[in-house]
Amino acid sequence: MLGTEMSGIGNATIAVVGLGYVGLPLAVEFAKKFPTIGFDINEGRVQELNNGHDHTLEVEDEYLSSVLVSDPNEQIGLYCSNQLKDIEECNYYIVTVPTPVDKNNRPDLTPLYKASETVGKVLKRGDIVIYESTVYPGVTEEECVPVLERISGLKFNEDFFAGYSPERINPGDKEHTVAKILKITSGSTPEAAEKVDRLYRSVIIAGTHKAASIKVAEAAKVIENAQRDINIAFVNELAKIFNRLGIDTDEVLEAAGTKWNFLKFKPGLVGGHCIGVDPYYLAQKAQEAGYHPEIILAGRRLNDGMGEYVAHEVIKLMVKKDIPVKGANILVLGITFKENCPDVRNTKVVDILHTLKDYDTNITIYDPWAEPAEVKHEYGWNSIKELDGVEACDAIILAVSHNEFKALNLTNLCKEKAVIYDVKGVLPKEISDARL
User: Fold this and answer.
1) What is the dihedral of CA 296, 299, 304, 310, to 10 degrees?
2) SS3 109
3) How much is the pTM?
4) Among the four residues 26, 48, 146, 322, which has the most C-beta atoms within 10 Å?
5) What DSSP designation does 131 have?
């Protein structure tokens, strides 16, 4: 593979390891200026991308096809592969694999270890390995680098170097795309940090911020989402309080928002692979250091309980309207973790479903964005992409604010006596019985 010489970067040939919501958009940006190999162990995903389609919808097919090349030796462009030999000649390896938590909410670094083993097999003298996966401070140098050293036989900061540049992808957001979001960069030596910064600066039009160290960059990323999680937990708690007091939460937040420094957060379900996960990474590291984080974990507990809370509120409303709960037909609008996005990872809508199931209700999940096969595989629930044939409902829960739902005539889907609950606060107040 031929490299592309750029000031301060060297003859750059780039491998992006992991072609999901984070890796693919990044690979596409680099492919505009550098020979870039997108590497993923999922053969189906690689084939899909080389055919010019991205099922995550983060990269439009036309845009993807414009940067694809059929030969990994092309001077500039993106070639996707699951073959290790195709990334042997790269000298920048960017790891963008997911960092989930296990069933006990403990950080699971398995994907990161496996990706590091893969890179270690092809690592050469002078190479730089950059991690983008969200982690707690210390993971890059204390967990990943030893794997690279063990597999490659090379010595860190003598034979190869590392960097960390946390991802800031917002799935489904077509305005704040990867090149338009300022990027934090860092490196294991001053020289490596400068190379990493220049590499990203060459494609990130919003610019970069070079952090003082890899640990600083890791910490900056993990607190971004912990901060949002805590703020959302606060307004979720307010929603619970104001519901008991008979006060409209939206009206309170609108009034408070007239002050210049009031932070405008809204109540809701907090899922996905970032905000609902990252605080556990920081909490884990804090506990290892002998500190029990109180606010971070309290926010997590409150947010994790919101799905169950919504379900119980719906049941209460049905009882007040004398609607029989057992055997009731309930339509849930949306199963993805956020609006206008097909991503169902760590969606908190399933908490609503599990609670309603305990009441022996008949649940229909309608989501035009989610793939039914993926929903079934991840959660064991059946979902539909069309509303045809759905029976009249005793209750409707708008759980995700897809654009398609805003155009629905929900009253036509209801029985004469029914409950409409608006989790997202996007429906006209006159048609909904309650909102979060």
Assistant:
1) -170
2) coil
3) 0.91
4) 26
5) E
